[in-house]
Amino acid sequence: MMQIKEISINDKEYPKRLRYIKNPPEILYVLGNTKILNDEGIAIIGSRCCTEGGRRNARVFAANI
After folding, report:
1. Under 8 Å CB-to-CB from 4, ≥6 apart: which residues?
2. Measured between alpha carbons, how far is 38 from 40 in angstroms, rounded to an integer?
């Protein structure tokens, strides 16, 4: 069974790019592989009024993850 891990902003596992945003979270709670926290990534954020092109792009990005 996986355990939730607490990572503080002072830990070496804390994501490097997240440290430098305005008001970064002091603590992250992580379930899973913490080694991927500094890998490249993409976020897909929903929209109430999405265009068909936006839907198509989201499907393509999500399929390739």
Report:
1. 29, 30, 31
2. 7
pTM score: 0.62
- pLDDT tens, 6-59? 999 999 999 999 999 999 999 999 999 998 899 988 777 777 888 999 889 888
Considering all CA atoms of the chain, what is the largest pairwise distance in Å, rounded to the nearest integer? 43
Q: Which amino acid is located at 63 in the chain?
A: A
Q: How far apart are CA 14 and CA 8, in angstroms?
A: 7
**3-state secondary structure string across the chain:** CCCCEEEECCCCCCCHHHHCCCCCCCEEEECCCHHHHHCCCCCCCCCCCCCHHHHHHHHHHHHCC
